[in-house]
Every structure is written in C-alpha cells, then in structure tokens.
Amino acid sequence: VTEKFGVPMVEAEGASRSLFTQGYKYMFAVLSTSEYYLAPVLDIIAQRAKAGWKSPSDLRIGMAFENDGFSLDVRAGVLDVAKKYNMKIVIDDKLPADLSDMSATLTKFKALKPDILLISGHSKGAATAARQIEEMKIQAPVIAYTHCEAAKVHEKFPKSAVGVMCPTQWLDNLPKQDKYFGDAAKWNADFKKVHPSYTEVPYQTAQASAAVLVFKDAFERANSFDQVKVRDALAATDMETFYGDIRFAPEGNNIAKPMFYRQIQADGSYKPIVTYEDMDFPRKVNY
Q: Where residue 150 falls among pLDDT bands split at 50, 70, 90?
C-alpha cells in the first residue's frame, strides 16, 4: 500500500528481513531486522566457550521456529552464525501452527541434551516454551527465545524463566538521549508512571515512541507534507534518540543500532548482557 500510493511509513513493529528485500522506497523501520534476534547469542556463547568451557565447534544446538516469515528469518541468522563456528545443529524443528505444544521438540531435547536451546514463535510461542520447559523440567546451559517481555514469562512462569537469554531491541540503561524524552532510563520511568502494571516495559513500546520522533524530525526537515519530500527526508535520517541511533539503509531498515540481550534473574528482573562475563552461566534453575 505504501508503495502503490507513495505514502511514507515509519514502522516500529515489523522486523522481518523480507520486508526490506522487496525494493520498497517508502517504508522505513527504526528496529534491527529479524536475522539478528537470536544469532548474536551464539557469538556470546562462543566467547564464553573459548574462555574455558569447550571449543565452539563442539557446541550442540537444539532449535524450534514458528513457520512464518519472521521466525524463519531468525532461523536464517542462527544458521549463518552456527556455520561460522562449526557448531552442530542436532534439532531443527518447525513449531505447530497454533503454537500450543512443543513437547515433541522438548522430548528430543531431553534425550539428546544439546548445549543450547533456541526458540522463536512470537509471544504465544514464548509462553508455550516457558510453560512446557517448566512442566518437562528442561535443563540446559543456555536457553534463549524471542518475545520474553511481551509474553511476561518472568511473571507467569518464574521458575523456567530464570536464566533465559532474551533478545531485545532496546535497553533501559542505554547511554542515549534526545531532547523530548531524555535518556532511556527517564523514558522507562515515565512509562511506568503512566502504566504502573508493567514491571518490565516491552521494547516494542520504546520503538513506537522512537518512530514518532523520526517522523517529527523528517517533517521538520522536509518543511512540507509533500510525500516525496517527506520520503527523501526520512531516507536522510541520522539522529540519536533515547531508543538509540537511527540511520536507514537504502532498503529502509535501521543500520545504526545492534540487537541487545537481557537475562532473566531469579527475582524476575532483566539483567543487561553485553559480554559473556555478564551472564549467569550455566543456567541454573530449581523446578
């Protein structure tokens, strides 16, 4: 629709890599694309392995992904990094369409005992994973899955959530700021004041605010509502916000910021993970 009618769009929730391989000129996204959601955790674990665990090439991975564009892009990113380290993928499953049961995958995981469990299935998939990991008492040195915060796994499944590595587009302690929201910590505190039911703020809300800032900046630089002029202004975006730096590739995705990781702690808090030294490793949980 944006291309057909030439209407500029700044989106904050669609991370699928396939959105940015179609040659679209009017769609821009403030977020990192889906192939970077779980792949970087393998880089972190490879560094941990080199520091005194085992050779990265000896690491074994069990993984399961929803059969949709987003999750298959996540899988593609994982495959690229696993190949880089010669890691062995021993389970590579597609989750059922309704995302209500992944016990078959977890049964194989218990039998084969891989070192790493990776899952991507949006919020419902995260909730199913957390529930059945707890029911089946899955033990693994490393577990990572997408949409931890949105699924509120730290509240609904506190036992199995402990130690889980969660990809996030944003951290609330980032040293980034803008003149409207202040820094990341201030935006986070202000959001919780307005919405006190949130113990952890989903990154999706932060990037929605960032998308508004990008549009505001582009309208001001274009000094016009002309669709082509606004589109060109968006393409030239180069700014710092509380959410992070934003600069668009010709394809429209943000190339100025990385994905980040947080690890769920026993008290339900999310600890920022920058290097392997920040991790609680191996994951320890009492079911």
A: confident
The whole-chain average pLDDT of the chain stands at 94
We report the CATH number of the domain holding residue 197 as: 3.40.50.2300
Mean pLDDT of 262-282: 92
63 CB contacts (<8 Å, ≥6 apart)? Answer: 75, 78, 89, 91, 92, 93, 116, 117, 118, 119
Q: How far is CA 234 from CA 128, 213, 225, in A?
A: 39, 11, 12
b/e burial code for range 108-143 (CB count within 10 A of at least 16 → b): ebeeeebbbbbbbbbbbbbbbbbbbbbebebbbbbb
Shared domain for 15 and 49, answered yes or no, is no
Is residue 27 situated within a structural domain? yes
Q: Which residues have CB under 8 Å from 239's CB, separation 6+?
A: 178, 213, 214, 217, 245, 246, 247
Q: What is the pTM (predicted TM-score) of this model? A: 0.82
| Per-residue confidence (pLDDT) for residue 195, from 0 to 100 | 95
What SS3 state is found at 206?
helix
Q: Give pLDDT, residue 80.
A: 95
Q: For 62-120, what is each residue's pLDDT tens digit?
A: 999 999 888 999 999 999 999 999 999 999 999 888 889 999 999 999 999 999 999 99
Handedness of CA 63, 95, 150, 34 (dihedral sign): positive
Structural domain of 216? 2-31+172-247
